[in-house]
Design brief:
Largest sheet: 6 strands, antiparallel
Order of helices and strands: HEEHEHEEEEEH
Number of strands: 8
Length: about 170
């Protein structure tokens, strides 16, 4: 029994480490019917971009989910409170929705959308009215940090499970 547990634990640990080592996906493309914002706040970082689009919220999320999801990386979709956009995306960011696509223990991709509700908030750029402005932010993690956390976690996890098995 103990030998079978060790073999299973080693296999799961190796698969987890391979998952952590896999290359990160590239920055996803915006929806096809969008125009990139050239406002100074939207061009500060290469990992944060803003677009004007006529796509619905679900179309925007599905566009990015399709690109961010890869065959072997599980992708979680988290719905966050819009108020968090000022912390996660950028201060003074207006928001009606904020979602995060995340590869657990790896990178995250935030999608913030602002859909105007009042007449005064209409998004009109160069004479064109847009349904919403989306701001996306890609947050990468370092391979060495991931491994630096994973290896001690796997070792301590093994020791805890082994001790628990002795007690039971």
């Amino acid at each position: 029994m103990a030998k079978a547990f060790k073999i299973v634990y080693i296999i799961v640990s190796v698969l987890f480490l391979v998952y952590l080592i896999l290359p990160a996906p590239s920055f996803p493309y915006p929806p096809s019917n969008s125009s990139q914002s050239d406002e100074p706040a939207d061009t500060e970082s290469s990992l944060r971009r803003a677009y004007f689009t006529d796509s619905t919220r679900e179309e925007v999320i599905q566009n990015y989910m399709t690109q961010f999801r890869s065959g072997v990386l599980p992708t979680l979709r988290l719905n966050l409170p819009p108020e968090d956009a000022q912390t996660v995306i950028r201060d003074q960011t207006r928001s009606t929705f904020l979602e995060e696509l995340v590869h657990p223990f790896r990178e995250s991709f935030y999608i913030n959308g602002f859909e105007p509700k009042d007449e005064k908030d209409i998004i009109q750029i160069k004479g064109v009215n847009w349904r919403q402005k989306i701001t996306v932010k890609y947050v990468e993690s370092s391979l060495w940090v991931r491994l630096g956390i994973a290896v001690p976690t796997l070792v301590l996890g093994y020791l805890i499970i082994r001790q628990w098995a002795k007690e039971v």
